Amino acid sequence: MTAHVRAFEGAIELKDDGDTPDAIAKALANFNQTVDDRLKAVETKTADRLDKVEAKLNRPAVHTKGQDETDVETKAFNRFVRAGVERMQPDEVKSLRVASDAAGGFLAPEAFGNELIKLLREFSPIRNYARVITVGASSIKYPRRTASTAATWVDETADRTGSEPAFEQLEIAPYELATFVDVSQQLLEDNAYNLESELASDLAESFGITESLAFVKGNGTGKPRGIMAATGITEVKTGNAAAFPASNPADVLIGMFHKLANPHAQNAVWMMNRNTLGTVRTWKDANGRYLVMEPISNGAPTTLLGRPIVEAVDMDDIAANAFPILFGDLQGYRIVDRVSLSMLRDPYSLATKGQVRFHARKRVGGDLTHPDRFVKLKVAA
């Protein structure tokens, strides 16, 4: 770097105390050297920092549990489970609090809730096929047509006959489902223990078993109304008081298939428990081919008359006056989620036993919206 005297004209005050051009030139040289030294120092420091950043970026990634849990909701939920709300920061409390819950309940983070739903489906396959919605009110109402207009043939000048559609209103209210889990204080203190997975598994089992039964057989009193308890579904009888007919039992299922309107049959599934499926698997057609077809590729469903089979543990076994098989489009059943999984931490009730109790609750409803999309089989003569 160089500088010229002319560039600093007016910037340096010349005094009449004996300053000479040589002295001025020396001062400018010192000034130039100082600027050069400082620029080199800045460049060296910047280069060192860039080298360190580049080296850090080139290192192999090491993933730990703490690094994966970057979202504030997950961190807050983990702290709430392990230490309680007393040790949470205000921002963490705000991220989990349910605004309408005066008891201080806390919502689980989305990832935890998704894992719970995935496990719930092991017990409640209806959630995979039914229409599931989330509502923000105490109930939801749907208009449902019960009768339609009718056109008639008339002569050119004959009187016309009027007709009107008829409607009714279906209301689905969510009901509360709750349980609790007791966890050892030592497990809560052990950060290496996968507590979140353990809670998800326990809660999924508790909620799933109860919810599954309600979606199939619930009577609508304090719980969802199940598909098999709803009215308006067409019934087909086996023709035998306690079982299927001894000869050509598959004809009963073929009759069920064709009782359903074609648009609904194309979207329908067979629903039965594992015992009933074991019986149906033994049936063959006139050519000796089994009626139940095994999947030909991974992930494909087992089929009966070309439609998937859904195993539901809560369906009836084959017995007198039972309803062991349902055939229909499960989109005609509506599941209404009102409040997702909410948890309350109780460190006091079991403190003398070294345990913490977690109260879990959710609000969910269900009811049949389109009975014309289903046919059910009754074991009767």
UniProtKB/TrEMBL annotation:
Residue ranges occupied by any Phage capsid-like C-terminal domain in the UniProt entry: 104-378
Organism annotation: Phreatobacter cathodiphilus
Record-linked Gene3D superfamilies: hypothetical protein PF0899 domain, Major capsid protein gp5
Top-level taxon of the source organism: Bacteria
Main location per the UniProt record: virion
Organism taxonomic ancestry: Bacteria, Pseudomonadati, Pseudomonadota, Alphaproteobacteria, Hyphomicrobiales
Signal peptide: none
Matches recorded under InterPro entries: Phage_capsid, Phage_capsid-like_C
Protein name: Phage major capsid protein
Subcellular location, record wording: Virion
Pfam family, one: Phage_capsid
